[in-house]
């Protein structure tokens, strides 16, 4: 790993590396399909995300190599006097750089983007069976203040 990690918005040519990182995970390997060619669903999702001004798919790069990814969604709320929130999702780093601070830099970059966009809150979720991830986010200042619920539709 080089000395300087760069962050930028993802391009379509990053999509293969992104899906590879998503699939290289114990939980996600059952859901993601990193194959060639990539399933069209990834391309459609990428196009929807990148065409929405309130979504950013960001990558961390070491030189030309994509070593991290996260999606940031900016959402206006009627609560908090009409304030905006940023939601961080799909955070992954390449196996080759795990434990080397890339994840920390990704999250701090997302927080900075939220501040630049005028958000009053940054939120994220992690699975309950990921205690290491929970500790990681808590070290970065996140607090488990709410109980989140999900309803799987398909």
From TrEMBL:
Keyword line: Acyltransferase, Transferase
GO molecular function, one term: acyltransferase activity, transferring groups other than amino-acyl groups
Record's keyword annotation contains Transferase: yes
Entry protein name: GNAT family N-acetyltransferase
Domain N-acetyltransferase stretches: 5-154
InterPro entries referenced in this protein's UniProt entry, alphabetically: Acyl_CoA_acyltransferase (IPR016181), Bact_Acetyltransf (IPR050832), GNAT_dom (IPR000182)
Organism domain of life: Bacteria
Gene3D superfamilies (UniProt xref): 3.40.630.30
């Amino acid at each position: 790993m080089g000395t300087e990690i760069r962050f930028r918005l993802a391009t379509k040519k990053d999509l293969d590396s992104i899906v590879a990182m998503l699939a290289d995970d114990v939980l996600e390997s059952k859901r993601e399909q990193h194959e060639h060619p990539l399933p069209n669903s990834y391309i459609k999702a990428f196009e929807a995300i990148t065409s929405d001004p309130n979504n950013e798919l960001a990558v961390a790069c070491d030189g030309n190599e994509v070593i991290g990814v996260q999606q940031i969604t900016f959402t206006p709320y009627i609560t908090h006097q009409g304030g905006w929130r940023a939601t961080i999702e799909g955070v992954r780093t390449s196996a080759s750089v795990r434990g080397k601070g890339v994840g920390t830099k990704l999250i701090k970059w997302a927080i900075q983007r939220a501040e630049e966009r005028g958000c009053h809150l940054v939120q994220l979720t992690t699975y309950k069976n990921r205690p290491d991830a929970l500790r990681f986010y808590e070290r970065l200042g996140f607090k488990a203040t709410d109980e989140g619920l999900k309803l799987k539709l398909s």
